[in-house]
Amino acid sequence: TYGVRLDVPFFQAKFTSNPNVPALTFRDGMHVDVGAKPNTNLTISPRAGFNWDINNDGVTQIRGGAGLFSGPPPFVWISNQASNNGVQFGSDAVGRPFSPDVNKYRPNTGANTAYSINVIDRGFQYPQVLKATLAADRKLPGDIIVTLEGNVSNDINNVNFENINLPTTGTPLAGSDNRIRYSSNKIYAGLPAPATLTNPNIGNAILMKNYNKGYAYYLTLQAQKTYKNLYVNVAYTYAKSKDLNVGGSTAATLWSSRPVSGDPNAAQLGYSNFYVPHRVIASASYRFNYSKNAATSIGMVFEAAPAVISEATLNGVASYVYNGDINNDGNSANDLIYIPRDASDIVLVPVNTGSGTINDTRTVPQLWAQLNNYILQDPYLSKHRGEVAERNGLIMPFFKKLDFNITQDFILQTGKSDINKHTLRITFDIVNVGNFLNRNWGLAKTTNITNILKYEGLIPAGAPGAGKPRYSFPYLDATNLIPLTSTFKDYTGLLSRWQGQIGIRYLFN
Questions:
Q1: What is the pTM assigned to this prediction?
Q2: pLDDT tens string 167-194
Q3: Omega of the bond prior to 194 within 30 degrees of 0, cis?
Q4: Is the peptide bond before 365 cis (omega within 30 degrees of 0)?
Q5: Kind of pairing, strands 144-156 and 128-140?
């Protein structure tokens, strides 16, 4: 089989312009125009597939295919430019007394002096993915069918979000973690105050741009067998997935929420938010036909994987980031931590809340002992000392779940043929039956804290170690001064709870 799909999205030229933006010079000498609509791009997606019964006997089958695939264009990402242009809404720092006249303080120029903007690269292409799959099915003695299947995908025209209002100038941090700390997080900060139309205070200027980066692959081994009324299936999948983005709808969130170790604008790959390196799934069902008018089916599904498969809000991976803005890019929860080798590799200080609500009397040796013990017990940190943590490098423990179903059919024959057969079906399902049997079974795990180090500022000039960053090691329970000792805790959300339901259905045959 083969085919081709063509997509041509059109936009009307109604993107509101900000006459002051094109004259501004952003990072790397870039000039942008928020009023320029995206180009009209033809997306061509050819694909081909095959299915080959080698000996035409249903014993060995080879199947596969390859092609380019694309979904609907990311219209919400494109709408970011239309709505964030510094004209339709914004703010200023001048005090304004209330007036019932809604036009009282509307700028005569139609523009603001404080705002954020989003813009789309003029050469932007809609994302595509190149996929290829190859599989072999083999029927073994005993009617056991074994399948080996592999799939590879590469991102074409993937999307990266870059804040072009972030300066390039900065100074490497002193010490082992020598990432750049920016001198300012804004090129246009409205200085000297007050901000003007030609020198505005711009929060973010997010550019959406293409890169051919990102990939995923998986390999699955499966065995299944049907014997009379019994069906059994078991499969194992190994996978790897890296991408540019962590997901979201607004450009500012897509840029600021991605954990980074260097330049926040760099098109740097990291493990995907829903990366699942290992997954085991098995199922079995049996149907008891004990009369012409009744039948009972029992089925079970078992699944074991990091706790991402069954609940979208609980990722199977996590990133260790600092609490605080260590690189001064304006984001306080996206800087991946440096994992110290020993006590000389980090400057530790007691927790500083600024309000005196925590009486942290721990000495530096005590702080290091607690941090070191935490690193030693952590499955990821203990293996990557002396390195910057990877995005989504920490993988959750396996979550094992068994679901159970029983179905009762009552069959009514109103004539001689099957078209006169009606069925009343009653079903009973238990999701996570292990937790139903024992409240300590079927529990998923999640992290206690992923921002295990709080940035407490740089050592001031003139002091020993000047310029080195200082960190505190937080408490798990600050109220009772209970230290953080373990990575994981039981997840108490819906995924870790058993659920039951009863259903009724009438089938007209």
A1: 0.88
A2: 998 999 998 899 999 999 999 998 888 8
A3: yes
A4: no
A5: antiparallel
